[in-house]
Design brief:
With about 350 residues, the protein is of the alpha/beta class. The protein has helices spanning about 20-30, 50-60, 70-85, 95-100, 120-130, 200-205, 215-225, 245-255, 275-280, 295-300, 310-320, 340-350; strands at about 5-10, 35-40, 60-65, 90-95, 115, 145, 150-155, 185, 190, 210, 230-235, 260-265, 285-290, 325-330.
């Protein structure tokens, strides 16, 4: 059986549920591969020697590394360490920093064999099957790759399933280690249809949103509760994209006694008093909105189509229910002046 090791490394925060890697691992397991997830954070006590031993014992044919802008130097270093153990191990990077990375980046990534550009599940399956068949650089989809001679190839993309229930649950098949999990990150949907110029998600998901069924969401919550986890983090970009669907999920949680402390995020124009009151009842303690800028002039150029006033109204709705509010802000935006940045700070202080 071919072993696949998926690693998330982020030394800037405690270990979080590696939800994206979990989905990929579960999918690969359902296709006959032995997949394992390793998450490394600031609270992970793993030495270099320990990590080398983990890799040697598991003996992966393929290692997938999650790539984010602020972790790229660690990803590059980790790839070098893996290749020093065994040059035959193939290494792929995927995630926000990889999806739109130009193929010319291979010249700066000597130990990376594949850059994944499409849906993680289908793309890694394509790579794993090619490795299993002894032809690691043939019949690939969704990647750019660098073969043994150093030649770079860009392959055709591969589409993700529009039915998220078609992907096995990393919670229900116990892909995750619950022993140190204080908070479970969940996805009830993927994607975003909007056009914000600064955001990765709309382009990565082709401006589409796909969903898990409500029954699947409730089944996962039940299992997470059974495992002793007391807090949920919904990572959907806009969990209230369909308000009626969200209300149905919350209503089922209430009817089955599944109230839990929750963090979630959504757009400021996707909440109303009814939704906010239900959020409070079911246990939402924090809601996050994207402000981005406190300057209407700058906001108008971002393709977000939300006003500062609308964000303020959403904040008030949450505060009326005693739900804590987080705001995402960006500085150094296109067209932003010093005065615009000050307006953002003033809004945050108000």
């Amino acid at each position: 059986m071919v072993n696949v090791l998926l690693i998330e490394i982020n030394p800037f925060s405690p270990v979080l549920t590696p939800i994206s890697s979990g989905y990929i691992a579960s999918f690969l397991k359902s296709k006959g591969f032995n997949a394992k997830v390793l998450s490394l954070g600031e609270d992970t006590y793993v030495s270099r020697a320990n990590l080398c031993e983990i890799i040697r014992r598991f003996n992966p044919a393929l290692v997938g590394l999650s790539a984010y802008q602020r972790t790229m130097l660690y990803v590059i270093g980790l790839a070098g360490l893996i290749k020093s153990i065994d040059r035959e191990i193939k290494i792929a990077i995927g995630g926000p920093q990889a999806t739109f990375m130009p193929s010319e980046a291979f010249s700066e990534l000597p130990d990376i064999d594949y850059i994944c550009r499409s849906s993680g599940e289908e793309t890694l399956l394509s790579v794993a099957r090619a490795i299993k068949n002894g032809t690691p650089f043939s019949d690939l989809m969704g990647v750019s790759c660098k073969d043994a001679s150093g030649e770079v190839f860009d392959t055709a993309g591969v589409s993700a399933s529009s039915d998220l229930d078609g992907y096995p649950s990393p919670y229900l098949d116990d892909t995750f280690d619950y022993s140190r999990m204080s908070e479970a990150i969940m996805l009830t949907s993927r994607g975003c249809p909007h056009d914000c110029i600064y955001c990765y998600t709309p382009n990565a998901f082709k401006h589409k949103v796909s969903f898990h069924s409500i029954d699947r969401v409730i089944e996962e919550i039940k299992w997470i509760r059974k495992k002793g986890v007391k807090r949920l983090w919904f990572a959907d970009p806009n969990i209230s994209f369909k308000p009626a669907r969200l209300l149905e999920i919350f209503d089922k949680m209430l009817s089955e006694g599944l109230e839990m402390q929750m963090w979630l995020q959504t757009r400021a124009d996707l909440v109303n008093p009814e939704v906010m009151k239900m959020m409070k009842r079911v246990g939402v303690s924090t809601i996050a909105f994207g402000l981005e800028s406190g300057s209407e002039r700058v906001l108008a150029k971002l393709g977000k189509h939300i006003s500062v006033e609308r964000v303020a109204e959403a904040i008030k709705l949450a505060q009326n229910e005693k739900i804590e509010v987080e705001l995402f802000t960006l500085f150094g935006l296109p067209h932003e002046t010093y005065e615009d940045a000050v307006k953002t700070l003033e809004f945050m202080k108000a």
